[in-house]
Amino acid sequence: MNQVAIFGCPRSGTSWLGQLFNASEAVAYRYQPLFSYEFKNWFGVHGVSAESLDAFGNALLGATSDFVLQPLRPPKAQRLTHLVWKEVRYHHLMPALAALPGLHKLIYIHRPALDVINSWYQAPKEFRAGQDIHAEYLHAPSKNTDPCEYNGYAKWKESLALALAVKAAHPDKVLFVSYDKLRADPAAQLSSLFAAVGLPMSQQVLDFIAASTSQHDDDAYSVFRTRTAGLALPADIVRHLSEDAEGRDLITRMELLSI
Fold it and tell me: Is 82 left (phi over 0), alpha (psi -120 to 50) or beta?
């Protein structure tokens, strides 16, 4: 079975992309297994090797927890061909995972920093009432309590730089996806991405695309969203995120290498 890992910073569209894959009859999808009790710190315990990745895949196929399986589980065909899992943490594992022949593809979804931080700021379970955005937006000290976390602008830059380095080392294995392009034309973007990982498009996938882009749920964590949150960040933070040369260069390079 082809094992595919999806990475991206929090609030970058990883959940929606994961559910788009989940809509395929040929995909077994698993949600943030490395953050679950069931598979917590798998590679820290077992090491990053061909054997541990293979064992991880087999264990994921037998996952039982609701957290990992998630509620959106379309009927599956008898023959699954791809195991897909996503993470917004543990980005430091990307270089080692990409080097393993047992990983079919590593997908990295990216979104401009201004949109990521703005979305985080307006997600009530992520940015708690009473917190100071000026104290949090750069290094997210209240969120990044573990080295595996990738919240805030500094970690956004660190993650993108790391993903670009992994792409340079493994150009055929690592695929970049622009959240903005996926939002603008999900059917075309997903068709290209599915072709790159060896998955056919199906009517079930097209139906889920239509549902997730035509129905709106005001829950900040829902994948059914027809509109994005308006800009709510203070003007000085908007200016910093918009004008920082390093960040602009990273996202430009990402866009140029994307599906």
Answer: beta
Strand residue runs (E) in 64-151: 82-87, 103-110
| pLDDT range class, residue 126, cuts 50, 70, 90 | confident
* Domain range enclosing 135: 2-256
CATH number, position 148? 3.40.50.300
pTM of the predicted structure, to 2 decimals: 0.93
Q: How many domains does the chain have?
A: 1
What is the Cα–Cα distance from 59 to 143, expressed in whole angstroms?
29
187 burial (CB, 10 Å; 0-12 / 13-18 / 19+) is middle
How far apart are alpha carbons 7 and 162 in whole angstroms? 11
Enumerate residues 6+ apart whose C-beta is below 8 A from 100. Answer: 48, 49, 50, 53
Question: How far is 152 from 5, CA to CA, in rounded Å?
Answer: 22
Measured distance CA(150)–CA(43) in Å, rounded: 18
